[in-house]
Amino acid sequence: MWVEALDLVLQKLSKSGFDFGKVAALSGSGQQHGSVYWKKGSSAILQSLDSNKPLVDQLGNAFSIKESPIWMDNSTTKQCREIENAVGGALELSKLTGSRAYERFTGSQIRKIFQTQPEAYNDTERISLVSSFMASLFIGAYACIDHTDGSGMNLMDIKLKVWSEIALEATAPGLKEKVGKLASAYDVAGHIAPYFAERYKFNKNCLVVQWSGDNPNSLAGLTLSVPGDLAISLGTSDTVFGIATDPQPRLEGHVLPNPVDTEGYMVMLCYKNGSLTREDIRNSCAEKSWEVFNNFLEQTPPLNDGKLGFYYRDHEILPPLPVGVHRYKLQNFTGDNREGVNEQEVQEFDPPSEVRALIEGQLLSMRAHAERFGMPMPPKRIIATGGASANHSILKSVASIFGCDVYTVQRPDSASLGAALRAAHGWLCNKKGSFVPIACLYKDMLEKSALSCKLSVSAGNQELASKYALLMKKRMEIESRLVQKLGRF
């Protein structure tokens, strides 16, 4: 399916009259955590592709596993625990690889294939991620896995940027040879294969820059490049990602090498309860109207008179809590200190307080966990994306709680745009013969390009942001107790 999709994209471009000969470099965005298993002997197939035939007609017998495990695979809990136990526990694995073991990560999926399909595993010559698989097609040889996407496998030492021997051994025998070498995301994987030069008239000198995962490419597409940059994607699920110099890997969230720099890291936090949870509260408390919802949010005071809520319509990832709603009233809370503050669990809030408790609760969780992961606070700036980033009332709460300016972008394609930027970045690094900052590509040109973002809300009052910091700490105390009592791990 991946191969046929590439055929279709290139055919559509060709029919549109696109001039492939003008392409100096290309890269791409691959669905993170998906993997492809090349059968022994497939390297020779890659190197001898016939430009008169579609790719899909030539690669049907190139794979030892016919279907790619992807991020929706939830069947590897047993393998996750085995890998964690082998390296000294979940926290040790997180410190080593940037994340505890997750079912969707490639390492546990490889282990399951080794255990359940040993013949297919032994017949595998190379294991690619979707990103390195697509790059392999373009260069006609096995491409390296890049550091950033590679860190979504539970197999790489994120500090040394090499495969971890203990993680490899905990996963499957002979794995180091099967995953090949690692490379920086801005490295050149190779020149375009003759197949594409002949079939589509690419310039034979066109560079193929390492592909990477969709989340790292989104970071590049949103022009996050320095410590203190933070993006919040407010969608069906909410995602927070940014750049930190000294991240602190934990049992939740992820740390990945920075895809557009030689130093620093990308921190990523994922929340299942995003827009659908906001819609639930809108429907039950605000007459199914965003206008009423926003009016409630505007008319209630910041800090919500000490009313805190935890709202989970789905099992949450961060924190690992089951479906449920938990409401608390903090008595004697003024925002000046936590002395004499008592919490009382309550069954309900009035509708305006419910709306603010939801929004403040989601944003306070984001701030708290980003801070715990080593993100600078306040951030240098926040770029808000996703459907709810069009809601100015919510963005005002973002600015107040984080204490920084909030910008928005009006484009849905940050991953593919980021891949194009990274292609240009890799081309520039190659031309210079050494790494150069990606910001050199768009310095002083952001306002005139598709990369522009606009200031939506100025930084909130810093005194209020400090009061939110106290409310956040109290919230984290309650969250910790909820996890101890109800946590799913």
From TrEMBL:
Sorted UniProt keywords: ATP-binding, Carbohydrate metabolism, Kinase, Nucleotide-binding, Transferase, Xylose metabolism
Cross-referenced InterPro entries: ATPase_NBD, D-XK_euk, FGGY_C, FGGY_N
Domain Carbohydrate kinase FGGY C-terminal: 230-427
Superkingdom: Eukaryota
CDD domains recorded: ASKHA_NBD_FGGY_SpXK-like (cd07776)
Domain Carbohydrate kinase FGGY N-terminal: start-end pairs: 14-219
EC number: 2.7.1.17
GO biological process, one term: D-xylose metabolic process
Catalyzed reactions per annotation: D-xylulose + ATP = D-xylulose 5-phosphate + ADP + H(+)
GO molecular function, one term: ATP binding
Pfam families: FGGY_C (PF02782), FGGY_N (PF00370)
Annotated family: Belongs to the FGGY kinase family.
Role played: Mediates 1-deoxy-D-xylulose (DX) phosphorylation in the cytoplasm prior to the translocation of 1-deoxy-D-xylulose 5-phosphate into plastids. Can also phosphorylate D-xylulose (Xyl). Uses preferentially ATP as cosubstrate.
Protein name: Xylulose kinase
Organism for this UniProt entry: Manihot esculenta
Phylogenetic placement of the source organism: Eukaryota, Viridiplantae, Streptophyta, Embryophyta, Tracheophyta
